[in-house]
Amino acid sequence: MLRNFLKKVFEKAIKNGADENGSSIATEIHHALEKVEKQPITADAIRGYYRKYKNHIPFNVAKNSKDQLARYIGYESYRDFVQKSTRNGNKVSTYLLWFLILALGVSLSWNFFVTDETCCMIWMEDHWEETACSGKRLERACDTKTLRKMKKVEVCKDAAVKKNGQPVLWYDKSDDVVTFFTYHGLHPVNGKTLKQATRYMVEKYGEECE
């Protein structure tokens, strides 16, 4: 607590125009105390506090000196500083605790609604099947339309690529192998975005019609 207290004292001195060195800081504080204290702390004493503070040397400060320095930074006494700092610290701890509780609640809710065991699907050769979430490689979060509409299909060269003006075929080409699907989105295995099939692609890579 004392170190934090002195940190605030020295920061105020610098804010009030002192250079960041012991002599300048001590002079600024001493001159300020001269105006309001009957027996202000000497500049030499303040300089000693600053030197020990900067060098992390343990030391004590007399009660009267701490009270003067507390008044310098706007408190009634050092005890007043400690009490208010403790209350503020407790407030921060309380806010942090509530934040952590809230974050935990959100996380649990997210896991409940998004990763519910009935909300996963897995690719089975040529279609998606609903499954319990288990973290398997080809497993994904459920998407109702993908689950219902996406199939891997073989198409013949005269297959329609659109129906009522809307695309009905998509494809992926990997390692010179073209695979057709009945719904857009990501390839179930390699994760690549499927492309809309064109008449050219169907005629070139489709099977001969029987």
Give a written overview of the molecule:
It contains seven helices and nine strands. By secondary structure, it is of the alpha+beta class. 15% of the residues are buried. It starts with a helix and ends in a 5-residue tail after the last helix. Helix 4 (63-72) packs across helix 5. The chain has two domains: 2-86, no CATH class; 120-205, no CATH class. It has helices spanning 2-15, 22-34, 43-54, 63-72, 78-114, 144-149, 199-205, and strands spanning 120-124, 127-131, 139-141, 152-153, 162-163, 166-167, 170-174, 177-181, 195-196. Strand 1 (120-124) and strand 2 (127-131) form a beta hairpin.
Give the arrangement of secondary structure elements:
Blueprint: H1 2-15, H2 22-34, H3 43-54, H4 63-72, H5 78-114, E1 120-124, E2 127-131, E3 139-141, H6 144-149, E4 152-153, E5 162-163, E6 166-167, E7 170-174, E8 177-181, E9 195-196, H7 199-205
Antiparallel strand pairs: 1-2, 1-3, 4-8, 5-6, 7-8, 7-9
Helix pairs in contact: 1-2, 2-3, 4-5
Q: How big a fraction of the residues is strand?
A: 5-15%
Q: Low-confidence stretches at least 5 residues in length (pLDDT < 50)?
A: none
Series of secondary-structure elements, N-terminal to C-terminal: HHHHHEEEHEEEEEEH
Tally of helical runs: 7
Strand pairing plus helix content: what structural class?
Answer: alpha+beta
Shape category: rod-shaped
Overall number of domains: 2
- Compute the number of strand runs: 9
Summarize model confidence as the mean pLDDT: 87
Rg over C-alpha atoms, rounded to the nearest angstrom: 37 Å
Tell me the span between the first and last alpha carbons: 88 Å
Helix coverage percent of residues?
40-55%
Strand order of the largest sheet: 4-8-7-9
Largest sheet report: 4 strands, antiparallel
